């Protein structure tokens, strides 16, 4: 059976709520980014990664960006789902992140990452569960 993990960073809990729903949908293990190294993450066949828009339309720079940079070279052929919460922007951070992951050769779920504005509502959480199910399927 292939191994699946959901790994996220969240400052105020919005991306955390998304991560829990993705993990439920996938039947996957859930980690904050501080709980797992990039090397350990690379040992999973399927990954869902969650990070909100931070800075000026970038990934969180203290923990998540260094983690993703370290993982990026090991994503080739891995099934990957990206998700995160945002505030006032238009999702540019996710478009840039998705493009990076595609460039790294990951097999991405969907045509774009799943983004939700601020606190996820019930429909948003259902979308997160569906993303998890898609990641775990096949
Ligand atoms: C320091 C900081 C920078 C942010 N930068 C952006 C941004 O560039 N674009 C955006 O849409 N939202 C931005 N936000 C809003 C967050 O993405 C939004 O509140 C999100 O729901 C936070 O998710 P979290 O609860 O998982 O931390 C920023 C928030 C903070 C605190």
Q: Which percent range fits the helix content?
A: 25-40%
Strand tally, please? 6
Strand content: 15-25%
The rounded distance between the terminal residues' Cα atoms is: 11 Å
H/E topology pattern = EHEHEHEHEEH
Mean pLDDT: 97
Rounded to the nearest angstrom, the radius of gyration is: 13 Å
CATH architecture classification: 3-Layer(aba) Sandwich
User: How would you sum up the major sheet?
Assistant: 6 strands, parallel
| Structural category | alpha/beta
**Low-confidence runs:** none
> Looking at CATH, which topology would you report?
Rossmann fold
Task: Provide the list of bound ligands, each named once.
Answer: flavin mononucleotide
| CATH class category name | Alpha Beta
**Count of helical regions:** 5
Tally of separate domains: 1
Going by CATH, what is the homologous superfamily? Flavodoxin domain
Approximate shape: globular
GO molecular function, one term: FMN binding
InterPro entries: Flav_short, Flavodoxin/NO_synth, Flavodoxin_CS, Flavoprotein-like_sf
Pfam families: Flavodoxin_1
Function: Low-potential electron donor to a number of redox enzymes.
Verbal overview:
The chain is of the alpha/beta class and 138 residues long. It starts with a strand and ends with a helix. The longest helix has 15 residues, at 122-136. The model has no long low-confidence stretch (mean pLDDT 97). Strands 1, 2, 3, 4, 5 and 6 form a six-stranded parallel beta sheet that branches. The protein has helices spanning 14-26, 38-41, 64-72, 92-103, 122-136; strands at residues 4-8, 29-32, 46-50, 79-86, 107-108, 114-117. α1 packs across α5 (122-136). The chain is built from five helices and six strands, in the order βαβαβαβαββα. The protein has a single domain (4-136), classed as Flavodoxin domain (Rossmann fold), CATH 3.40.50.360. β1 (4-8), α1 (14-26) and β2 form a beta-alpha-beta unit. It binds flavin mononucleotide. Flavin mononucleotide binds at residues 10-16, 52-57, 85-89, 118. Flavin mononucleotide is lined by residues 10-16, 52-57, 85-89, 118.
